[in-house]
Amino acid sequence: MRTPTRRSTAPVDDDALSRRRRTIETGALVARSFGMASTAVAAAGIGAGAAAVASDDMRLVCWVGVATMGLSNVLSYLGRRRPDSRWYPWLNTGQSVIDTATIIAIVALASRETAETTWPLLAPAIAVAALRHRILGALAVFAATTLGFALLVPGTHDLFYLIVVGFMIAVITGTQSSALDRHLRALDETRRALQHQATHDGLTGLPNRAHLAAYADRRAGRPLAVLLLDLNGFKQVNDEHGHAAGDLLLHEVGARLTAALGEDGLAGRLGGDEFLVLLPEGDSAAAARVMVRIRDAIRRPVDIGDGRAVTVGVSAGVALRAAGGDADLDTLTAEADAGMYRDKRGRTVAA
Hints:
single chain, Alpha-Beta Plaits, 2 domains, four-stranded antiparallel β-sheet, two-stranded antiparallel ribbon, 6 strands, elongated, Nucleotide_cyclase, transmembrane helix, transmembrane, transferase, Rev_trsase/Diguanyl_cyclase
């Protein structure tokens, strides 16, 4: 009797892009919290930064800035929790808009009311936009900070330096971030392809033994019906029409199994012409209903090219695990394997 070899399959970690997003949000939370604390201390008239907060307008802008940075931190926290959420791009964009508007207001008012050179504080907003939105985001924030500073601080001699430095930062950080993003996406695509190859049969595209074992392990202690299928007449197809025809037949059988099951369970290929079907929460009645659909699907002629068609049948064995049962997939497959051979012998005798 043939039973699937149990293989441990570690859960797939988050993809590289999600990890990068979490890293960005963690950095944003830390940096923004430091900025909130520094701005609040200055607005309260404490420390050396208090000299830059000399007017009521400046103090009000600083306190509003603390509030808006707090709002951005809330968005950053939500984005860090669910970096793969469909809402992440909106949370990401919201932070960029709020942070850019906040820093423009604080820098512009500080430049108007003090002799301090504050425009370099706009550079981090451009760099962060590059991390979040790549080259287009960096250039957009560069344009916004430059235009905002020019309108709010008219006639400033710092505008030229702001344009030169800001544009350089936008291009350098934006292109590097874009290149890293492309690299991470390519890495994730390769990783997903390798993961699929490790858990699926290369010929039929169905789950392989490792995938089936992991699927069953996740349902330990719960009802499970296991159907082991073996094609009748497959060897004759290989002998008479060649292995290429046999491969076409196996591929078509895999597709028909998937279609016959629908959402009721999972079909996989063990090897050769043997297939395994797992029915979660399945009982004998469910297994019988599914077997009727499977037999009807498989017995239909299969086109193998050049106007040729072949027909095969299927022998099957069933094993059941009741709720609370401790039988693992190997045990259930061995039981179904014995039933399948009894079914095959019975069909041979009947023939």
